[in-house]
Amino acid sequence: xxxxxxxxxxxxxxxxxxxFYAPILYTVIFSFNESRSLTRFTGFSLQWxxxxxxxxxxxxxxxxxxxxxxLATVISTIIGTIASIGLSSSRKIVRAVVEQVNDLPIMNPExxxxxxxxxxxxxxxxEKGFGTLLIAHIMFCTxxxxxSITPKLRSLDPNLADAALDLGATPWQALxxxxxxxxxxxxxSGALIAFTMSFDDFIISYFxxxxxxxxxxxxxxxxxxxxxPSINSLSTIMIVIIxxxxxxxxxxxxxxxxxxxxxx
Length: 264
Description:
This protein is mainly alpha-helical. The chain has helices at residues 2-30, 47-54, 56-88, 92-107, 110-123, 130-154, 160-166, 171-182, 184-200, 203-208, 216-223, 230-263. The protein contains twelve helices and no strands.
């Protein structure tokens, strides 16, 4: 009886791992398939990777996705950080109202946000394209940055900035050299969330883009109606990049700790 109690959780965990990672493994394997079949592996080939890099539409979508994600992340992180620091010094009622407004894009269904942005750009006669796509991404990324930074600001000593000013620092120096380093973990996590949200977005991007500008999610949607194994190749490259990034993020702190222990 005791052995069955120990085995059952392991079986359950194993089934969960298979459920979550089997589709990823399937995608990686069939990205090297010789034929177009997505159900039968006929032989090893790199042709779909070659075709992916020779497909102009796919390459442009990848470049647009990365460019918009990077720009949206940088701009939303700057805006979110400044707004969060400003709110931390505001009155409680102002802070409460702004925080409630900031939560609306997060709680709102994406389809509602997408339609709202579409109507907004249409009303102002703004031509949809790269610019509208970037503005939309900055709009829905900024609340996530603020949501990540605000708890870090609340944990700070409210007299920290005043102490820096009393010691001779200028307001700019107090901000850059005292406040920002203290909330840097929140800024980094907010930027990573913003990048992920921008890179992965489909619904809002689909409604606000135009003039042949598309990102990876829109490209995959348009290509999903016909079999194209190059999508598997693109997915595999993204999986490899994310895996390497996760390994580095987890390994680098461990290596730093070991170096510090050796110095001690």
